[in-house]
Amino acid sequence: MTFVLLFQVEVGMQDPEKLLEKSIQREEVEVPDRKFYRLLVRGICSQTDILDRIIEKYAKGWKVSRIARADITILRMAIYELVFGLSGLEADPPVVINEAVLLAKKYSGIEAGRFINGILGNINRLIEKKGYDISKLTAKDDD
Which of 13, 46, 54, 94 has the maximal Cβ count within 10 Å? Predict the structure, then answer.
């Protein structure tokens, strides 16, 4: 559900707030899940610039503008979970990466799954090695 909404925002340049509320009503999201869903979508949308800088750093030789929109959407979701977490919940990196790869295979193709797995694996290794620090993830050099 999150992927579909964020993909619609990405390709249609639609207002995420309007889509979010329509999606909650259409999908009949349970009241306890609404807060989580809103936090996730709003968080990803508010951090798009940072997420895109991270993507460009780890997608060696690729500009965000040249990566398939489905792949960008999946990467933003997964990186947000790995880097920022969700409402106090600690992300389980293997689960986050696996879910992203499955989404990529479903919506973009097998090669996209490999591409996304490589990027997220590199980001996760850096987080494990150096701890979370947004400046290290977005820095120009790989120290």
Answer: 54
